[in-house]
Amino acid sequence: MAMDFDLLKEEFLSYLRIELNRSELTVKGYRKDLNIFQRYLKKIFQKEKVEITEITTNFISSYLQHLATDLQHRPTTMRRHLATLKSFFNFAVLHEYLVKNPAEDITAPRIPQRQPAYLEKKQVEALFRTITPDTPLALRDLTMLKTLFYSGIRVRELVGLKRQHLDFQEKIIKIVKGKGEKQRSIPLHPELEKQLEIYLKEGPTCQDDYLFCNYRGEGLTTEFIRQLISRCAQTAGFQQKVTPHILRHSFATILYKDCGVDLKRLAELLGHSSIRHTVVYAHSDVKHLKEAVEILPAPGEEGIRVRYPLPGERAAWQVLEEPFDTKIAQEQNILTGSKSLELQEALNRYLDYVRYVQNFSKTTYIGKKHILQRMVSYLKETVFPGQTILLKDIKTAHLRHFLQFLHTEKKYKPATLYTNVVQIKTFFKYAFQHGFIDLNPAAKLVNPRIPPREIQYFKWDEVQLLFNNLEPEDSYYLRDQAIIKTLYYTGIRAQELCDLKTEDLDPALSTLTIVSGKGDKWRLIPLHSHLQETLRLYMKKGRHHPDSPYLFASPLGKKIYPGTLYKIFRKLKEKTAITDKRVSPHTLRHTFATHLYQGGVDLKRIALLLGHVNLNHTEKYTHTSQEHLREAIELL
Q1: Are residues 566 and 617 in the same domain?
Q2: Based on the number of CB atoms within 10 Å of its own CB, is 99 exposed (0-12), middle (13-18) or buried (19 or more)?
Q3: Residue 201 annotated among the catalytic residues of the structure
Q4: Is there a catalytic annotation at residue 518?
Q5: pLDDT digits over 570-605, tens only?
Q6: Catalytic residue from among 398, 459, 544, 586
Q7: pTM assigned to the model
Q8: Residues with Cβ within 8 Å of residue 535, at least 6 apart in sequence
Q9: Within a domain: residue 332?
Q10: Catalytic site residue 536?
């Protein structure tokens, strides 16, 4: 079906606004990015209307190059533009205007990892001191700065504040229209409460009940506040650029690092719907992570360099976050849809939604498809043989029979059953929300309880056995030795190690960058001092193919694969006396995390080093031996 870009753009923006219920600011951002792309289209094609089928992958690549070279856009901005185009063309594929997304295979520009900029408490106080509140407008300026810092609100939320949003009886500020149209309440800090009471008595009179206004009584713009803070920072003698968002970063970082506030409460204060967005404020600097890695022993040492928190120390990791409630609503669906939709058709629509709208990775997509297709096959063969299965005919009992079949006939373990239940719930939740069914038959399914099991890991003497049982006469001895030690001293996954390139290794050999970890996440890992020595020797004498882009190359100079690593570990298992546990790259990852925990490193830093976004995934490494427990008791 032919469709020109301009018409599809408007249809896509309506879809964002109406079906996905995105905020006006979000829709405005998409429109801005697509307009820039559209101007480039007209310039290159030399015509007003361009069919979307004319846009190729190569064309989009040249557009990104145009953003980088001609418009001097930063990688972060380029990633945003690419994300916009991917969503736009996914929409076109979903609605059958295109067969394939031309932006799908384009890799987003790499962004160097950086710590969010923030001010220390003393710097914030110095910023406040640059304003003398001797006039109503000066009092307004000081009050705005204190509101930004003591509440952590966004600058756009600040300019939207009205007097009725302050509740001195409950001692809260109500954010009525936050990012994504979300609402939240923020407790009033005593210092801010006192400042606001003075401001309401002596500050300027504002129109339309705005809390902050200009000299004419009109509401303020975000740009005005940015300029105000910039002037204050210059007056205070700061070398760094200070923005309203840096005050928000300061609020969050000081609460987490200095006050020990857990991430879940911090997410609620900041208005984050997911803790994943809040984890950025828990990012330790490289020095902080380096201290953690150095707890691991070097060969020849007796064991882990234990460092427990000193008496009186308060650490944010002492409070573990609970997962957010994700229960599926049981209410009658008020949406309308096709009530005679076939199960297979509904599944195909859901998988298209997962692949093109949610933009899950191919691996995740295949995993979901495999599980749900198995459910469809079971229902066809046992519950509805020879019949057309309508989505509305599926009952909770049918799904329970399927899970019972997986448990008794297929002998699935609880962890595998748990995955199946989650995927089935997600599918029927999608069908319910899109009006394909009136009641959700999966809503009452209970996730199987997964019995806790002890994580396998090596003791330090076993790690040294692995180090010492490689064959020095092997031509790839230095490479394999560097591989084993990299796995232990960084805790990276086997696939992450195989993907490593020489450019990911800092020239000074002080840090390693994981560019595309699990879930396409990336992170920065400081290198243990012993590992630095090992890699220095390997880079100097052990690389058979110095021109290969890969850090650990095959005999042909190409990328190695996890199978190569498992061969190395099978040989090591034959040579060592380690028979009671699995000898594999992942066991070394478990060992890395367990040794750090036993050395007194907090879970948050371990999570950062492992690339976990949720502390629940890291908590499994808190298993302890009797010796570890005895060491803790001896601290009394």
Answers
A1: yes
A2: exposed
A3: no
A4: yes
A5: 999 988 888 888 899 999 999 999 999 888 888 888
A6: 586
A7: 0.49
A8: 482, 486, 505, 509, 527
A9: no
A10: no
